[in-house]
Design goal:
Blueprint: E1 3-4, E2 8-9, E3 12-13, E4 21-25, E5 32-37, H1 41-57, H2 65-81, H3 83-94, H4 98-118, E6 125-126, E7 133-141, E8 144-148, H5 154-167, E9 171-175, H6 182-192, E10 201-203, H7 208-217, E11 223-227, H8 230-239, E12 246-250, E13 256-259, H9 265-277, E14 289-293, H10 294-310, H11 329-345, E15 348-351, E16 355-356, E17 366-367, E18 370-373, H12 380-383, E19 390-396, H13 399-406, E20 414-418, H14 422-431, E21 436-439, E22 458-459, H15 464-469, E23 472-480
Parallel strand pairs: 1-5, 8-9, 8-11, 9-10, 11-12, 13-14, 13-20, 14-19, 18-19, 20-21
Antiparallel strand pairs: 2-3, 4-5, 6-7, 7-23, 12-22, 15-18, 16-17
Helix pairs in contact: 1-7, 2-4, 2-6, 3-4, 3-6, 4-5, 5-6, 9-10
The chain binds NADP nicotinamide-adenine-dinucleotide phosphate and magnesium ion (MG).
């Protein structure tokens, strides 16, 4: 019998037999691992009402910062106790490798701990009294936070939203991507075993078009925080206009990784591989456009292609696998379609390009690490987010060319520069219009630093103190210290 997944509403696991269900698949084997309910719009509205009532009752919002911090730490401790289960579930449901899932689980736990610690830092302000007026500037929770996350980091993206939203005192409703609910459910099990009051944190399962849309449209949701594709993000913004709720968007990217001729080439190749093939390229900040200065272009391509071909692709739970499965057959096919388009457009396929079916991989959704060279800037494979292990390598001549090519995109999420010349590296990275950047590195970031994109890669920032601000209103309180008639009229 398939494992039946449940939603968590008002502090209860919902046992009602669902009207609609969805099979949850292990992308490494194609096997059905569980069955999830698909909530209706009415059920979603009911869950939103629960969150709203709980917020208005003040059971969480009125707790002290210390009390909220303690609950966040309880959640972190419970997740630490469950870390092996979290890792195994993430591998089984998303297809990523155990090493990737381990890093995600540690980051997720650390995120709860970070926001607990941030609550110890007072951010409220009192201004010097002006005449007889004393002004206080205080931050307050927004109300109900609707949290919508994608399938590529099901655990980490959920926690990046849950931790700051709860820290700020909101009530929340989380909607995982329909195909990857397993670790979000585990996080709610960890939250259930804490002093978090009932009804503050709610988990709803179902499709984006029904559940996600209902959240984005609801007049009772005060902030919607969405991570996903730019197209859906645009729709969320439109749906949010009814009650003018706050919208926070972490969207897609087509990030440039600029390699200058004076870079340490082995380091650059190594990080460029990590930049695109980590998570099988299903990472918003992937370095999916590698820009190489012409003096070293041929050498770089030769080394990069040789190493890309050596990457061991296989089930995430196999100790030798370095790159796991693509999340679903549907997504695999969409990546294969882009590979087809790239060939039609005249790009040179220098490595990979095919689905992998040998050595027992035929039931899963595996794709070779794929490299295109000799691309031009008008090609779709250069302009559009493929969101898979497919990289395009572009050639540039001067520093100014590199900057121009890097910024020739609607996106602005991430970017990197490799050079031994620190002055040049800093000069160039400051010109790259993106929110998350590196010099002689890729992908490694700090929970204390705000995460988000320029241009069509998003609005607002997650993580860091700014990540808390996304879930807070700011109020000024002006107090008359010497009340007597003012005599204006
Ligand atoms: P997606 O299709 O945009 O879906 C993201 C989430 O939105 C899912 O939970 C989805 O639900 C839901 N959704 C779909 N249609 C919706 C609608 N009309 N209203 C409200 N919600 C809706 O993205 P994805 O394919 O899952 O993830 C890949 C994308 O996420 C890539 O573009 C990637 O760059 C981006 N991403 C960005 C970041 C970042 O930090 N900037 C991080 C990770 C991923 P269902 O899937 O259940 O239908
Ligand atoms: Mg989708």
């Amino acid at each position: 019998m398939k494992q039946q997944l449940r939603q968590y509403i008002n502090g209860q696991w919902v046992d009602d037999a669902p009207v609609e269900k969805k099979d949850i698949i292990n992308p490494a084997t194609g096997e059905v691992i569980a069955e999830a309910p698909r909530a209706s719009a009415e059920q979603t509205e009911e869950a939103i009402r629960t969150a709203k009532e709980t917020f208005e009752a003040g059971v969480w919002a009125d707790k002290t910062r210390q009390e909220r911090a303690e609950v966040l730490l309880q959640i972190a401790d419970n997740m630490q106790d469950q870390i092996d289960a979290l890792i195994a579930l993430e591998v089984e449901n998303n297809g990523k490798t155990t090493a990737d899932a381990q890093a995600d689980a540690e980051d997720a736990i650390n995120t709860f701990r970070y926001y607990a610690s941030l609550l110890q830092t007072a951010t409220d302000q009192s201004l010097e009294p002006m005449d007889d007026m004393q002004t206080l500037i205080v931050k307050e929770p927004m109300g109900v936070a609707g949290l919508i996350v994608p399938w590529n980091f099901p655990l980490l993206m959920s926690v990046w939203k849950i931790a700051p939203a709860l820290a700020a005192g909101n009530s929340i409703l989380l909607k995982p991507a329909e195909i990857t609910p397993m670790t979000a459910i585990k996080v709610f099990e960890c939250m259930d075993q804490t002093d978090l009051p009932k009804g503050v944190a709610n988990l709803i399962l179902g499709s984006g078009s029904v559940v996600g849309q209902t959240i984005a449209e609801s007049d009772d949701v005060d902030v919607v925080s969405f991570t996903g594709s730019t197209g859906v993000g645009r729709g969320i913004m439109q749906a949010a206009t009814g009650n003018l709720k706050k919208v926070s968007l972490e969207l897609g990217g087509k990030s440039p990784n600029i390699i200058f001729a004076d870079a340490d080439i082995d380091t650059a190749v190594d990080y460029a591989l990590f930049g695109i093939f980590m998570g099988a390229g299903q990472v918003c900040s992937s370095g999916s456009r590698i820009l190489v200065q012409d003096d070293i272009y041929d050498t770089f391509v030769e080394k990069f292609v040789a190493q890309a071909k050596e990457i061991k692709v296989g089930p995430g739970d196999h100790p030798t696998s370095q790159m796991g499965a693509i999340v679903s057959e549907e997504h695999l096919n969409s990546i294969l379609e882009y590979i087809h388009i790239g060939k039609e457009e005249g790009a040179v396929l220098a490595a990979g390009g095919a689905r992998m079916t040998k050595d027992g991989l035929d039931k899963g959704f595996f794709l070779e690490p794929t490299v295109f060279t000799d691309v031009t800037s008008d090609m779709r494979i250069v302009r559009e987010e493929i969101f898979g292990p497919v990289v395009v390598i572009q050639r540039f001549h001067t520093e100014a060319d590199a900057i121009a090519i890097a910024n020739d995109t609607d996106y602005g999420l991430a970017g990197a520069v490799f050079s031994e010349d620190q002055n040049k590296a800093l000069r160039v990275i400051k010109k790259v219009r993106a929110g998350i950047t590196w010099v002689n590195s890729y992908h490694l970031t700090d929970v204390q630093a705000p995460w988000g994109g320029y241009k069509q890669s998003g609005i607002g920032r997650g993580l860091g103190p700014q990540g808390l601000d996304e879930y807070q209103e700011v109020k000024q309180i002006n107090m008359n210290l010497n009340p007597k008639p003012m005599g204006w009229f």
